[in-house]
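>> received
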Amino acid sequence: MDSHESHVAAVTRLLRSCAYRHDLHRLFSDCMEASAISISNSMDLRNREPREKRYLDIVGQYERDVVELFPQVFAGIMMALEAEPRDALGTVYNNLELPSVDKGQFFTPWPICQMMAEATLGDPKLIQDLIARKGFVRAIEPACGAGATVIGLAQTMRAQGVNYQRHLHVTAVDIDARVAHMAYIQFSLLHIPAVVIVGNSLSLEMRDHWYTPAHIMGRWSTKLARCDAERTVTSGPIETHFVPTTTLALPSISERPEQRDLPRQLSLF
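>> returned
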């Protein structure tokens, strides 16, 4: 089997091959959105019609040979994750020199993601006890980028003998739709139950929600609603904040009081 790095390099070459005809920023963004739509439309019936229209709008802008490159990129990322489950699209993004300095984009190196995941999880017994009591743990990533820290969390749980596909749910947010699509693709291919939100974690302005196949197949919306209802019964109403009518509220997520004043890159509860 080829290495993770060789598949990432092949994907980078595929995208660069069109640079003389198309702007790489636009091409990469459209490729990621089209790939995300392809995954979403296989499961998310509620959003299928508008996303299918958007998909046709995207592919209609390119020549046939360029459109045929999109599934090749998707296949390359899938093989990279199969070879080694770590951030592949973030590496491609950096290889193409696409991160926006103006937006302050910085992709956390994989070893640091692993270290952060280990520090977040702490004692494996504590996580196992929490899962034994509640059935799963929930993680929130307010600036997810391509999803490297979440992937690190999932793989650390796996190394500790916890099946993250059954016992982890993630809410990931990013203000940049392009990198949110990148995270959604990687979470979907790794079968991480998650909702990826395009929006601003600080102002709570949310523009779009992307539910991974693992979220839908695992009936996680029902599980999370039941969990929040049980917490309301045992500890009183969950604190909520009014949001302007022009925004969409985050999925129902509650926090321990001590977490509310402590902004974190990755929080687990």
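>> The first strand starts at residue 137 and ends at 141.
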